[in-house]
Specification:
This protein has 193 residues and is an alpha/beta fold. It has eight helices and seven strands. It is elongated.
Length: 193
């Protein structure tokens, strides 16, 4: 809640509609700041159909802000389809920079550029091992659900890793060290978010 910018709040209060990944999550944010802009749902499972509807509204002259639950639209969250569809129809796309787990974590990791972001770690163990085995040297970033984190670290062995979770929240934590060491520290954790 506290990471939102003044500019983002201004945009959310001025647009005709807000397309939200989860309207319940966005409703809490809007309520906190007294914003009454109507919302539409735009999530991964309805992204294709939703993109068509949103673009039709944009072409008709409405303004729409696209928001995701806890990140940045189109960065491992829904958004790329609607952005591409709108751009193809000549609709101007503007960005409102905001919170990003990727850049927040990278800024405190101590790892050097260049940074390669891969999105979410593959769910299947074989795909994960194959991806990790083919990584070039350098800094590689992944999103990973807490329930998969321990098993995702295992194939990395003694590679240096940085794990950050719950960034800018009350239970923020970050760990850096060899993957096996960090995995061991996580073994004793009571909850992985």
């Amino acid at each position: 809640m506290g990471d939102i910018t003044h500019r983002a709040l201004e945009v959310l209060s001025q647009v005709d509609r807000i397309a939200a990944e989860d309207t319940r999550t966005t409703a809490r944010l809007l309520a906190r700041y007294g914003i009454k802009t109507p919302m539409l749902r735009h999530e991964k499972h309805n992204e294709s159909a939703s993109a068509e509807g949103l673009v039709a509204l944009l072409v008709a002259g409405e303004s729409i802000a696209l928001v995701s639950d806890a990140g940045t639209p189109a960065v491992s969250d829904p958004g790329a389809r609607v952005v591409n569809a709108a751009r193809a129809r000549g609709v101007e796309i503007l960005t409102v920079p905001g919170p990003s787990a990727l850049t927040a974590a990278f800024s405190i990791s101590g790892f050097p550029l260049p940074l390669v972001f891969h999105g979410f770690v593959p769910k299947k163990v074989a795909a994960r091992r194959s991806l990790f085995a083919g990584l070039s040297t350098g800094t590689h970033a992944f999103y990973c659900p807490g329930r998969d984190l321990k098993t995702a670290l295992t194939p990395l062995g003694n590679r240096e890793v940085f794990v950050a979770r719950e960034l800018t929240k009350i239970h923020e934590e970050s760990l850096k060290g060899e993957a096996v060491e960090v995995g061991g520290l996580l073994e004793s954790s009571d909850s992985l978010k």
